[in-house]
Each structure stands twice: as structure tokens, then as C-alpha cells.
Amino acid sequence: MNSNTEPLPSELEVLRSSSMSQVIYKEIEKIILGGTLGPDEKLNEKALAERFGVSRGPVREAFQALHARGLVEMIPNRGAFIQRITKHDAVEIYDVRAGVFGTACRLLAERIDKATLAELNALLARMDAVALSRDLDSYYPLNIEFHSKIVNSCGNSTLANIYFDLVSRLHLFRARGLVHGGGFESSNAEHRAIVKALDDRDPAAAFEAAYAHVQRGKSRVMMSGEGPQSKPSAT
Amino acid sequence: MNSNTEPLPSELEVLRSSSMSQVIYKEIEKIILGGTLGPDEKLNEKALAERFGVSRGPVREAFQALHARGLVEMIPNRGAFIQRITKHDAVEIYDVRAGVFGTACRLLAERIDKATLAELNALLARMDAVALSRDLDSYYPLNIEFHSKIVNSCGNSTLANIYFDLVSRLHLFRARGLVHGGGFESSNAEHRAIVKALDDRDPAAAFEAAYAHVQRGKSRVMMSGEGPQSKPSAT
DNA sequence: GAATTGTGAATCGTTGACAATCCATATTTT
DNA sequence: AAAATATGGATTGTCAACGATTCACAATTC
Q1: Mapping DSSP to helix (H, G, I), strand (E, B) and coil, where does residue A75 land?
Q2: pTM over 0.85
Q3: Least buried of A54, B94, B123, B131, by fewest C-beta within 10 Å?
Q4: Pairing of strands A79-82, A72-75
Q5: Any idea what the Cα angle at residue A97 is, between residues A95 and A101, rounded to 5°?
Q6: What DSSP character marks residue B72?
Q7: How close B158 comes to chain A (CA, Å)?
Q8: Considering only alpha carbons, which residue of chain B is nearest residue A61?
């Protein structure tokens, strides 16, 4: 076909492979996770449709997908609202995330290669260096990269999708600043314990180290006592 | 086919509390998981809309939600198809399910009460009895009830939702008969190991027992070599 | 006869319009 | 004046219709 001509990676090409509602989905997801809108904020169909230059149909379809993924709440005859994550919800999500991340490490321990191990060690070193200079804004992305590298290397895309979904939902729990807040030196010590278990090819130890690490992260976040705590009725 | 158009049984009142697309979602989900349709089967918008007596709008919204949950595949300008689960996909799902179910047991071990323990023991006894009579059709629902009881008792609805989603997706992998196929006496022995760990309030042991149990279930299913094995391009 | 091209029916993607519902404000009632 | 009730505007839920794309099958070409 036109393997020689592909000068348009822009919107036209995207529209060929993905339907409109999928594009709208990604855009609204960006808006939600961007954090500019407050929690419990209303998502106006007409306003969003006009903003993207489409009709309300694709927007409504995107809403349903966002609802299925737990990012928005649908109230009949009222519309779509950014999902509100209570403290109780956040605890639940952290516990599942601990189990999923632990499972990723367990699976990775059975198949990790030298290259991946080297990359993880390199990240450890960089995080240690940044921790010394106490540069929080530099530590944060490295921390994410470390966890993502593990999840993406465990050879299970289903697990990876679930993991990143959980992380997205936690983003809705406005309690950041705490992730960096309490002691990230100890955090990196926990990272080292994980990598050591991976290096030892010890699945059980890898799970335990990873599970404990996320649980400590939960404690660090919850300690600060931020976020909404009201508990709406279950669906 | 069905000249008597009454596919929605008295659930018109549900429409008050839930939107139409949510009802359609549940109906299509039932159709998919019912198993009457083969894998990779096309879901016709117009046909489904007429079957439910609505227009195509709500049906398309339901499709998006089903797609987000991994039950249908959306192909641009082609429509919605029942998601095809390859053997490779099934392995991934089993591994995640093992980790999630293990996490449920781990959490439950920290909070289980006498009543729940008694219920689980009662189920164990019933499954043993059924195993003696080799009544597979009676064993299967008890097996499901056992796992569901654990997941629903661990006090984490987020985890429960993810778990049942994974189970649903595994249903798309047409390889049943195998779940019962190879030795369900050993399966119940594994159940006993889980309950023992729960009784001991030993989280780590509970996880290991549960994880190993699902992994053995995976082996039993995969051993039979059924299911589609073609591997479409990764997303 | 096999491959290619052309045609038409069927289906999908999107839109704009209409009815039903909800919300905020103004009006009435006690 | 406070509570209850009406009212108008805005928003959602659903539908039917239009253009665009795909698929199956017939006609044509080599």
C-alpha cells in the first residue's frame, strides 16, 4: 500500500484506526487525570462536545467507557461526574495495588534477564543520588519509572492494564505531596529489597517485598490525613 | 426468531434507577457469558436494538462499556465482536487471578471471623461429599460459591470487582469441562489448605495457598489443550 | 478458469431534533 | 419573613435519518 507515504501521524491517521469515541475517551481521561478539575465536578456533555467539535453521541459513549473504568460516576438524569474517591476507597485500591504489584514482581522473578536487572539497578542508583540532593520533583518520575519498568517487564499485559488503572484511580484521590512527603530514603531501601529478591530469582520474597512496599506507601499517604472521607452509598 | 417481543422481563422499573444503556449492558453481558454465541461472533447493533426495543444509541453506549471491561472487541467501521481470548491471554488472566485471589485470602486472614470460617468449612464438607459421589454438576457451583465467599468476605469491593471481571473474561475462553476435568479431589485438598491458613490467621500462608491453588487450576485447564491458540497482533 | 474489477445491499459512525427531567429563581401562601 | 409552590432555562435520554464504509456477489478481463 502506502508504506512509503505516512507523513500524517496526526488526527486523520488516528481516526482511521480508532473511532471518534475512543479519541474523546482519551481526551476526557487527560482532563480528568490532569487534575485541573476538582473532584465531584460535573462533565457537561454539550460543552465537551463543542470543545472537541463533535456531537454529543461520541461524548456519551466515552462517558460509558470512563464509567466502566471507574473514572467517572454516572447519575441518571444528572449526567457524568468525576469519580469521587473516599479515603476508604483509596485504602481498598492500595491493598489491591499491593497484591497486583506483588504479583508482577513474583512473575518477574521467574523470568527476569540481566538487561532488565541492570536497568532497575541503574534506576536505584539514580534515585539514591536524587534522594541525597533531596530533589523531590526529580525523584517522583524516577519512582514511577521504576514501578512501571517492573510491571511492563513481567510479561503480563493484562496485569499491567489493571495496575495502571488502579494507579489512575488513585490519582483521583487528591492526596499527593504525601507520596513524596514522608521519607523517600526508606522508600528506596524498600526498592532495593525488591530488586534483591528479583536478582535472587525468589518469587515469594519478591512478592513480599513488593507488597510491603506498597503497603508502606499507603501508610505514608494515609498518615497525612488528606482527601475526602465521606462515604456515599454503594452502587 | 422471537415474534413475541418480550426480552426484558419486568425490568422496566429498573430503568428508573439506572439508565437504559446500563440495562442493555447487563443484557448483552448475559448474552455473551451465556455462551450461546460463539467466540469472535459479531454483535449487530440494529438486531440488538430491535431485540430490546430501543434505538442503536444505548446499544452503542453499552458496547463501549463492554469494550472497556474487555468483553468485546471494537473494530473501526466493522463493529463489535465478542472478545477472543487466546491461550496466551488465558494464561495471563490466570496469573493475575492467582495474585488477586491470593491477595483476597491474605486480606481475609487478617480479619476473618468465626461465622465466615464456619461457612467456609461447611462448603468444604459439602464439596467433599459431592466429590465422593463424583457429581461434577453439583461440585461446580459449590466451587464457585467457595471462591466467591472468600472474595466477598475480604472486605474489599474493588478487589472483588476486579476478580469477577477476570472470571468473566476466562469464561470467554471456551475450555470448560476441564475445570472439572482433572481431579477435583486434589482441588478440594487445596481448598482445605487455604482455609487452614485463614484459620491460623496467617496472611502469607493464605496467599501462598490461594496462589498455588489457582495456578494448579490453570495447569489443569491448559493441560487439556483446548481453546483457540491463534495469536492476533498485540494491542 | 482464476483473478480482478464493479455494483448493490447491509452496516457503521455521526449528527441534529424532540421529549423528559432536573435545577435555580421567582411567586404565592401561611 | 419563612416555607411551599409554580415557572423558565438548561441538561439529559432517546430516537430517526443521513453520509461513509465494508462485505458479498456478479460481471469482466486475461
Answers
A1: strand
A2: yes
A3: A54
A4: antiparallel
A5: 125
A6: E
A7: 6
A8: B61
